[in-house]
């Protein structure tokens, strides 16, 4: 996290705080479109409902001179608006599959498809742009920036995605959306608190709000309740289920917990790198 980013977001927050009531909740002001700048070379122009999947996906990792297979010919599809849980034991390949679907890593063989477009073979910069524009991601470890408040953490993707001038031109809309998202996850009163001042459940809900900042079509969640007790985990799952039901958000979630997986529309079981159920 650069000091300039922290400074910019802090200044944005101070400007926001100076309005007194913090935000004018006009729905029209919150319906900001995803940035419409021309995509970088190599990024497909995507249209239609989000649909994510893979074909004959293989992935292995090297341990010394030995290749350890992790995924072995996985074929997988998720429809628009579906909530799918990928369940499996530790080391089964479920997190690796999620990372490949989210273009955080590349497969050794096979294809990852989004809206019918192959995306795993795009250049790294193009994959980053596509991921930022279309996918939201949450992780077991939260990955919040410790020097920023909850509000600033939620706002960060907008600043990173936009150019500096582009961000400042839209800062009022982005600040309004950040506060709306914190309210959505029940944390409007914790907006000025840093991660060290939040509980585990509050940090995860902040991470969910951050993942939604740029209005993704697909939310990828890697063990979102893994570090939480049952009660707090249930609160996080309630938030995810409401996002899926009320906003038709496509969600792919990895978990080892059958009770958590059972709250999804569909459960896919993975074992030893293969889909088995």
Automatic annotation (TrEMBL):
It is an enzyme of class 3 (hydrolase). One of its GO terms (molecular function) is transmembrane transporter activity. InterPro entries: AAA+_ATPase, ABC_transporter-like_ATP-bd, ABC_transpr_LolD-like, MacB-like_ATP-bd, P-loop_NTPase. Pfam families: ABC_tran (PF00005). Its EC number is 3.6.3.-. Gene3D superfamilies: P-loop containing nucleotide triphosphate hydrolases. One of its GO terms (cellular component) is membrane protein complex. Keywords: ATP-binding, Hydrolase, Nucleotide-binding, Transport. Residues 52-276 form the ABC transporter domain. Belongs to the ABC transporter superfamily. Macrolide exporter (TC 3.A.1.122) family. This is P-loop containing nucleoside triphosphate hydrolase. It comes from Adhaeretor mobilis.
